[in-house]
Amino acid sequence: GVRMRMEGREEMQGAVGLRCTWDIPPPAGTQAKWVRLNVGGTVFLTTRQTLCREQKSFLCRLCQGEELQSDRDETGAYLIDRDPTYFGPILNFLRHGKLVLDKDMAEEGILEEAEFYNIGPLIRIIKDRMEEKDYTVTQVPPKHVYRVLQCQEEELTQMVSTMSDGWRFEQLVNIGSSYNYGNEDQTEFLCVVSKELYNSPNGLSSEPSHKAKVRSTLL
After folding, report:
1. Do 131 and 152 fall within a single domain?
2. CA separation (Å) from 198 to 9, 73, 141, 191, 195?
């Protein structure tokens, strides 16, 4: 009877020792080192050390079992009702600190899970990546639209001075006095103007405000 009591006490000390020196990885083969997680029906096997890389995360609190009383399945795995598709990249991030995604995996999905598990550094990385993508999408080079406007010499000054909405004067072509207005010849000009057109919802809504006749929209 005495011997059994002694063995029981040694086991107790071993267990207490493990809990106190958690920063030092426990010796290989120690059961407590490995943690099974059942995420939406898919089982993941990892270590406590990995799950606790991010101290504030739900996963760290879960495997420390302080505040969260999580249900376990029949194998003893912690049950988490989340999508397993996005859990792989999250677990890999905790393992090696990099976000690795399959090309068809949506970053929004990972962000949703990272926020649920409260993994701060990963949330920041994904948001940065999404912002970069948005930036490159909006940085489409502008199209140059050219217009050729026909006007008479006396209208020219007024036309150039009233050009607005981003239209820029490019070139003036003298086409001589091919039209006869009344008794006097008027010199006719073709005025080439250009505009940078961004992919805005309005498209080509802004028209130059002048009386000149628009010969063609594109040169």
Report:
1. no
2. 77, 56, 8, 23, 10
